[in-house]
């Protein structure tokens, strides 16, 4: 914003918009079924500084070399955030249900998370992680989940950075053909 002075010391504010219509923006939501501290530890590997103090949606800018702007929204499962999903998830381009593969509590929360997210979006993926390492590891009991057409939902395996890049490439390919 620039401020210019006129006579009688009246300030006129000039607003310069930073919106560029040539840059497309993609919004990806990561819905974590882990505890906030475990989510913070998991996201540190992707250079996302998640604040675990309050149940909230937190937005991060995903840095990429291309002209595509990516916003990553991170939220932990909580009764308050569960109620806010109806007003936010329909506006996201993709949603990831993040769970810890060796945590029994995280695996139990996946079914509730999928029942909350599935009616709101079709672009929904499961992602398992083993970071941070669990003291009492167990074998994962996550079963298959299906979309509205009866196809099995894919489970993303790999690092968060690789999975988000894969989702961006899938979404871009779909958007190019529409």
Largest pleated sheet: 6 strands, mixed
Helix percentage: 25-40%
Overall body shape: globular
Query: In percent terms, what proportion of residues is strand?
Result: 15-25%
- Count of β-strands: 8
> What's the pLDDT, averaged over the residues?
80
- Span from first to last CA? 37 Å
List keywords for this structure.
178 residues, Rossmann fold, two-stranded antiparallel ribbon
What does this structure look like?
- Helices cover 29% and strands 25% of the residues.
- The protein has 178 residues and is an alpha/beta fold.
- The protein has one domain: Rossmann fold (3-Layer(aba) Sandwich).
- Strand 4 and strand 5 form a beta hairpin.
SSE map:
Layout: E1 2-5, E2 11-14, E3 25-32, H1 36-44, E4 58-62, E5 69-76, H2 79-88, E6 94-100, H3 104-117, E7 124-129, E8 155-156, H4 160-177
Parallel strand pairs: 3-5, 3-6, 6-7, 7-8
Antiparallel strand pairs: 1-2, 4-5
Write a brief structural summary.
With 178 residues, the chain is an alpha/beta fold.
